[in-house]
């Protein structure tokens, strides 16, 4: 039987889960003949037997700007020596791929959270950096350059962390060591620990593993199902007070589990007011309300020189006077963070015009305020 693997995963212009290009197995041709002879002689895994699986990290939709806080799919069966490619669409939401003996299969994460003071605060360097430790946890302040060198996961390392995956990053490849023991291994996102968990089942090379085509198909079906359900809920979403705008919303409805799925949009995305009126945004999730944002204000999260995740200082700093804004200059709320109850941000408009605004965290999240004289 011809084994198959993923030759490419194709995304549409919005960076969304789209279509998958499959081809018969084509072993990598880097001195492959010599490697195959050595592998056969040593009883190792040949290149032709190494499979690459693709797992989605989050998901989104063409119909609604969403962030689905889940791995797609969240379980798969593989062999030692295989690679799992974690592909993240450009929603603006940051994630990690983290596993190790120090990561519990359920519940919280030892040593605290990804952010210094909870959501909406600065990331902890030791969580945002890539870090690969055979024992212990990262020290406060981060990992050394040597500790940041990625190694295959052999099942015994205590901490095996991709660090924060942000806009512009390549897909993250988790390589399983040839000598990893069969068993179950939990993968989590350090940012969304309760929601984003996946189980990798490693079986002996003589036992059947998942077909990579079917793994992607399962993930794609789950993304489409959750997006469709969220779209149905979004049709009835309204802000709590007249003249207000909802900045994001989440729901766990219709999913059979307490996994929040977020709509990263403004509801409504266009409002009309008069000069002197005030518009209030009800913020659920982590968002900014930003008018006339310079290009340098995006993305919100950046990678520091030491590979830690840092905030874009321009995006993270309040700017302008929201109490009397005349439509000129950069007006920025900085990062707002709310759930139930929401955080709030208000702007009073003093000049007529049509003003477009954005969330600097989430791509494609924009709205308009039309102010009449």
Indicate the topology.
Layout: E1 4-11, E2 17-24, H1 32-42, E3 52-57, E4 66-68, E5 71-72, E6 75-78, E7 83-87, E8 98-99, H2 125-128, E9 131-133, E10 159-161, E11 172-175, E12 183-188, E13 197-202, H3 212-234, E14 244-251, E15 261-267, E16 270-274, E17 278-287, E18 290-291, E19 301-303, E20 309-311, H4 313-316, E21 331-332, E22 336-348, E23 353-358, E24 366-372
Parallel strand pairs: 3-7, 6-13, 14-17, 16-24
Antiparallel strand pairs: 1-2, 3-5, 4-15, 7-11, 8-10, 9-10, 12-13, 14-15, 17-22, 18-21, 18-23, 19-20, 23-24
Describe this protein with a few key phrases.
373 residues; mainly beta; Immunoglobulin-like; 2 domains; five-stranded mixed β-sheet; disordered N terminus
What would your notes on this structure say?
This protein has 373 residues and is mainly beta. It folds into two domains: 51-225, Cupredoxins -  blue copper proteins (Immunoglobulin-like, Sandwich); 237-372, Sandwich (Immunoglobulin-like), CATH 2.60.40. The chain is built from four helices and 24 strands. It has helices at 32-42, 125-128, 212-234, 313-316, and strands at residues 4-11, 17-24, 52-57, 66-68, 71-72, 75-78, 83-87, 98-99, 131-133, 159-161, 172-175, 183-188, 197-202, 244-251, 261-267, 270-274, 278-287, 290-291, 301-303, 309-311, 331-332, 336-348, 353-358, 366-372. A five-stranded mixed sheet has the order 4-15-14-17-22, with helices on one face. A five-stranded mixed sheet has the order 16-24-23-18-21, with no helix packed on it. A four-stranded mixed sheet has the order 5-3-7-11. The chain is elongated.
